């Protein structure tokens, strides 16, 4: 089995979220692991639409790899359209994360 990771960015703290986004982005561009999935969850979704720096890196990440954002949170916050405009796929992520873990993805949570 190859090395696979799901990067879950849940923090509302800009520097922590930036660390996670940058790690995922660099990993995808350098091919350090066999596969990398990125999920924005909770407070990080609000950060995506309020922080220009996080939004910029997430948009660059979206060009090559479509990160996920939690639809439940996005709909409750009224930011679904803004997240989709950044290139994110907005979906209910609970079962998606569970399936990734069952498929051998290791979680990294920021």
Helix fraction? 40-55%
* Largest sheet entry: 5 strands, parallel
Q: Can you tell me the CATH class?
A: Alpha Beta
Oligomer: single chain
Which parts are unreliable, with pLDDT below 50 for 5 consecutive residues or more?
none
Task: Examine the coordinates and then state which fold CATH places here, giving the name of the CATH topology.
Answer: Hypothetical Protein Ychn, Chain: A
Per DSSP, the total helix count is: 6
Number of strands: 5
Q: Output the strand order for the largest sheet.
A: 4-3-2-1-5
**Secondary-structure class:** alpha/beta
- Beta-sheet strand percentage? 15-25%
**CATH superfamily, please?**
DsrEFH-like
- In the CATH classification, which architecture applies? 3-Layer(aba) Sandwich
Report the C-alpha radius of gyration, rounded.
Answer: 13 Å
How many structural domains? 1
Intertermini distance: 25 Å
* H/E element sequence: EHEHHEHHEHE
Secondary-structure map with pairings?
Blueprint: E1 4-9, H1 14-30, E2 35-40, H2 43-50, H3 52-64, E3 68-70, H4 71-77, H5 80-85, E4 89-91, H6 94-102, E5 106-109
Helix pairs in contact: 1-3, 2-3
Characterise the protein shown here.
With 110 residues, the protein is α/β, with parallel strands linked by helices. The protein contains 6 helices and 5 strands. The protein has a single domain (4-109), classed as 3-Layer(aba) Sandwich (Hypothetical Protein Ychn, Chain: A), CATH 3.40.1260. The chain has helices at 14-30, 43-50, 52-64, 71-77, 80-85, 94-102, and strands spanning 4-9, 35-40, 68-70, 89-91, 106-109. The two termini are 25 Å apart. The mean pLDDT is 93.
